[in-house]
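Pilot study result, target chain (447 residues):
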Amino acid sequence: MAEKTEPIGILDHVALDICSYDSLVIPIKEKMETISTASCIRRVNRKLLEKNEDQFIPQKIYIGLFHHDKNDLKPMEDHKWRYLYSLLNRKPHLEVTLDNCVKELRELEHKARLCYEGHEQIKISSNEFVELMLVDGGFLIELFLRHSIKGLKRRGDYVFNTSGLLYELRCDMLMLENQIPYFILQRLFEIVPVPQHCKLSLTELAFRFFRDMIPGDHKLHLAKFGQEGNHLLDLIRHCFLPTIPRVKANQGGDIRGLPYKATKLRAAGIKLKKASTQDLLDIKFVNGVLEIPPIQVHQYTERLFRNLIAFEQCGTENTPHISSYVLLMKSLVEDQRDVTLLKQKEILTNYDVPEKKEAFTLFQRLWEEMNVAENINEFYYDGICEQVKQYKRSSWQLQNWNPGKPLKHIYLQQPLPPFVIVIAVLLILLILVGALFSIVSYFRHEI
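Predicted structure:
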């Protein structure tokens, strides 16, 4: 008969059945997890929250530990319980499956708590924490299943029949503070009764749910999405990772973007070309051609980029890929003329955002409000920008470029329009003809 459980481990919250183990096993296990597990679900910087709280705080559904004690989204809390019941009730003897889930989650509780930044200050009992992981994890799995398998959707399903709700849920579920550890989802998925005709893995189900908000080739992204990730936002981040080697700057200097915006680059003889790849960060400069993958600027773009940048700024070991991309695009797209040029080159595609979110204001706003310049300690595209600077063209006065100098103070000499050249030639001819007539007239007068 099982012994009575007692709280042990982190803040005396974790309760485990220790009847099968030596008394030393659990403390050693927890110590190894404490040393090996980094907090991957972080709080958004307070300064960022003050500027745009709605971009980081869920509006429809709370997932995970940080907002579990709030009661302002009660309607969706009830639907989470309904989805969990549907998931577990798909097989007879619901209690057996439920018992297995609870036992497995207790085994993972200590490690799961460690994933949350500042978990020591969050007061929640062992039972409450396990229940939270079960309800949130079960809801997500059932949501992914219903989204991919049409036969599972029920008449009157509030989530799928309410206009715009899926969009709002996706927006909330990609937020940095609204996550649960992915290994919790994986373990639950191994236990709960998945429909027999569903041959998709958890990763494939999750990717299908989020793929429309990730720019690029879905087939390529699925392989990246399947890489080991800490939570759903981290899995989405993997889809953006570049596939080509980084070009590092050879010279010193604080390079923070391209020297000129798109229209001036073209005027200087630099060609802008849509890259053949759809991997968003695979930007390269070859023989005077700046190749940029197409980006779909749509309704998800700003919120997704903000949370990815916030993730990069959390002091994790992540390379600031998205921050670097925003910095480069901000220097490339400064006004509507640049937007028009990039749309002509098919670099900006699927452009369905409102006027107030034009691409040039989008990247400018992200750069300013996310404090990108202040928080980026390594500009990923410094080598490419250095190559552009060093590219020699007779029409481009590169020698005066200073990477630290504001772009508005840099003058770019543009080629003269054809009609100006024609007028200049005619004026020169008229002057020569006039001079010739004057000379002839002079000698005739002398003779």
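One observation from the pilot: The radius of gyration is 30 Å. A full batch analysis is planned for the follow-on phase.
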